[in-house]
Amino acid sequence: MLKNLYLDSLEASVKYLRIILKEIAELKLPYTPIVYAVWYEYVSGQNPKLSKNIQAIRKKKELIDYQKVLEWFREYVSDRQVFITEEQTRKAGNLLEGITSRLTEGGNLMERQGDRLKAHIEKLDSASNQPDIKNICRDIVLETHRIIDGNTELKNDIHSTVTELHALKLELENLRKAVKTDLLTGLLNRRGFDDAIEKHMKDAQEQTAPLSLIIADIDRFKRINDNYGHLTGDNVLKLISKLIQRHIKGRDIACRFGGEEFIMALPETKMDGGFALAEQIRTSLEKVRWQSKSSGKDIGTITISLGVAQLIPGEDLNALIARADKALYAAKKNGRNRTGTHNGKEVILP
């Protein structure tokens, strides 16, 4: 999906790998996809702004921790996918402009060749002797061959351009998907969520159809990172994302909203349906026993708190999110590992 961002040779990428692993170890950073992506762009020199920032921090001998790397990733790496997409879009536009120009040029050439053929035919009508007729016929044959050759060249040019446009289309589709996807979990990111929910919000308001929202937050996630390391924390995020994906269905959408927070939009679903799904996710998670892959230590149980709200007619997305967030906050404040709901007036905790 990100193949167009990194086009280095095998030899170069192996060289970068050695440098990256050495520097990650020296800085005592976790070996996660996000850290590797940031350091790959830094070491390979593909991202000058990122490189300048990292060099300035290292020169000052300031602490480089996982949080700092996450900031660099969001600011310098994830947005570069948008830049690449725009570049590919411009390239497609240039190809279309080129093929239009080539077709116009080909049309003008065929018109001139047609005029020459017409002139030869008029000469043939008035020719009175065998040598003249023979010469005119020869010119007609030569002009016909030129037309055929010109059309073949034009056809090949168009075929080549169409093939390149098709390849660009596939690349753009992959890049647009990458721009809207959270690299770690594979869920939608905030940009992807905003795009995906726009139509659902419009449909719900116009058709007065129900739409519910769930916000979920992993309980005491910082303690997991502090006690077992960020690599274990990333694995927890990935596994909980898979759990969420197994429970949602149909038109439902799930997003990593930031950090350890997730959001789910459920079209055609009332509050009680949203609450039921939230409880399924919560109870499924609390049954899992966790173990650190790196150390083998028993982590125990990891829980999640959730807030649910149903869209009110005339309400915008920010207001809906705010109500679900209030329900989540109440669940956190009142013991964690529970689901709160907001009915439009107040938070209810079962």
From TrEMBL:
Pfam families: GGDEF. Residues 209-344 form the GGDEF domain. GO terms for cellular component: plasma membrane. Its EC number is 2.7.7.65. InterPro entries: Diguanylate_Cyclase, GGDEF_dom, Nucleotide_cyclase, Rev_trsase/Diguanyl_cyclase. It is an enzyme of class 2 (transferase). GO terms for biological process: cell adhesion involved in single-species biofilm formation; negative regulation of bacterial-type flagellum-dependent cell motility. SMART domains: GGDEF (SM00267). GO terms for molecular function: diguanylate cyclase activity. It comes from the Bacteria. This is diguanylate cyclase. It comes from Desulfobacter postgatei 2ac9.
